[in-house]
Amino acid sequence: MTEDFIEESADVLSPSHRIKNEINNPSDSCVYGVLVRNATKTFGSGSKKCAVLQGLNMTVKRGSIYGLLGPSGCGKTTLLSCLVTLRSLNSGTIQVLGHEPGSPKSGVPGPQVGYMPQELALYDYFTIKETLTYFGRLYKLKAAFVKSQLNDRYVKTLSGGQQRRVSFAVALFHDPDLLILDEPTVGVDPLLRHSIWNHLVRQSVDHGKTVIVTTHYIEEARQANSIGMMRGGRVLVEDSPENLIRDYGLPSLEDVFLKVCLKDGGISSDEQSAEDVTSSNEAAPVETQIEPQPSESSAEVSNKIGKRTPNEKSDKIKSVARKRQSFNLKSSLPTPHVIGVLLRKNALVMIRNFGVFLVSFFLPAIQTALFNVTLGGEPTYLKMAIVNEELNLSQGRVCINNTMDCAYSMLSCRYLQYINDNIIQIPYDNVSEALEAGRNGEVWGMIHFGQNFTEEYEIRQSLGDSAKLENILRSRISINIDSSNQQIDAFLNKWLVEAFRDFSRGLLIACGHEPEAGYMPIEFTDPVYGRKDTQYTEAMSSGLIIAIIYSSSLILITGVFVGERQQGLVDRSLVAGVKIVDIFVGHVGFQFCMTICQTLTTFVVMFLIFKVPCHGSVALALLITLLQGFIGICFGMFTAAICDNTNGALYLTQANFLPILLMGGICWPVEGMPQSLQKVARFLPVTYGIECLRSILSRGWGIEMPDVYMGFLVSFAWIFGLTTLTLTVIRYRKFSS
Ligand SMILES: Nc1ncnc2c1ncn2[C@@H]1O[C@H](COP(=O)(O)OP(=O)(O)OP(=O)(O)O)[C@@H](O)[C@H]1O
Where is this region: Disordered (predicted)? Predict the structure, then answer.
């Protein structure tokens, strides 16, 4: 099916298949499909700087096939990526179809160019139809036409060669005047290779298309009209295959290539690229804007190029760089049609990865439910060793028949009755055995009463302030707790103190005294906000909601966008004329829809199912949570912009998440950190957001309160800052060398 499609698509395509193309009129008077003069391109900086293109010239006649040959690493892909504006030159000029690529008239990137990168650059989980529909929409092809051309299968179920054919089809589908194909025949069988070349020949002969094709199979390039043999960042010779074979008097193009390389001095391409780049830049004259004549050879055209003074040269280079980097408001604005196409594509990608979709959709709600179910509950079955020396050993170590009236007898047993049921009391004969059990982890601690506890307690009560120290010490209940677990330690502490308060109150009432006399002279009245018995989950809810929404937005968008970049899908869209701002808005827009769903399900679980109270406006709480999710999305896009692979991006998201968890006031109040760290903590994207949400949920505050509006203002500032930074990084990385 696909091979038929490849054969037929370009034959049936005509501009009428396009809904409307802004650019469909390349400079018809221009006889050169592509013209490159004195191109230099470097990668890296300092000692790692390496020149990949070194004063390269290339002349491709319109309507011809140009085979670009050269060893691995000589700069073929770099050159092609400069032609389609994925990269920019350090110096030198390029013209495609008579215009500078990237200029409004050129149609490159856009409808005039079909680009097939080395990598497949296809969505695995799309069918062939969906793939071509997506790219067809980007190129504004009519839906009816797209539909008529296709039948269907998932890309991931196709063989490697078949996938390459689909990738080829994508490059041809919109009937571009210029085809730039980076190793289209690699990994395909000889029959299909033959068919692809036949097709290219028909495209150039019958339809006047200009084709530039790179290949490692030198002999297949015989079908090209002209061949450029490239090495060390330069085109060494450029002529038709017949002329090359005749002039060198050799039987094959491969022999010609070897001879050309030997003549070049036999320097390896690695050595070439390691050469000092400064010298190559200086050697490369900068071309004036000249229109070459049809009959001129590459050398003749080069001769016409005016040589400039070094100052003029550097001014020109700077002005080229300025022109490329200058801010153009119109071209920086998103295109609604393209954004619509990208949003549909992103939705389809997500639905096709159904497992990922389900997890990302419901994970925040599941995490919230888990949080409520697992955290904040009271620990149960905590064993405590009881060593009660008031009891007579011969009668056993367990209290029986304790009196609850006003009698000072066996007060140790009376106290033990008030202890919370979550504590299991295990009697031990003596202190050393009980401590040993504690050390072995059999019990969480020991409660010890001395032999005359009741008598000493009575004396202390009756003497009051005149009680002696030894009497006070002997009337104490001695408690040892295994404090290795802070939460359990805190619960045991609380329950044992509460038990003593209740014991003392009970005894005072039984003896006809005022029970309040047993309390410490401190009173905690009703709290200003919240309740006396505020649950742990309630206190943690604001930090948790924001941590969950922020991190899920961050992780999801980072994974999706880095994946697309790695597979060459972003490059392919850029060559199709999609602007980076469109890609940004398409991803951010789709992820934000996901964030809205995630936030809603999280709120339902937190406030409706687990009934965590919200004392303020739910709408305000939703809004600040969504803004925090948006910061996560922006951070994800920034991470994806600076990382070239998924691993790097994953490390960076993790490195970002942990400080936020620790310092954002989620686990511990910011006020509890060292002063210097508090300042850093305030700079984190979530700190003000969490404080804002806490003020809304627990205090019921509105937007007029500083803690609330600061949360919104800081969130907006982060969103603006991160968006600007991301777009700058993407732009800088494209133009950087
Ligand atoms: N982003 C980059 N940063 C640094 N070096 C790069 C970058 N991209 C390419 N290079 C280097 O530039 C040189 C040319 O690479 P390029 O991909 O253009 O070669 P090629 O001729 O297309 O090779 P192949 O035939 O194997 O595809 C290589 O040495 C490569 O390592």
Answer: 269-318
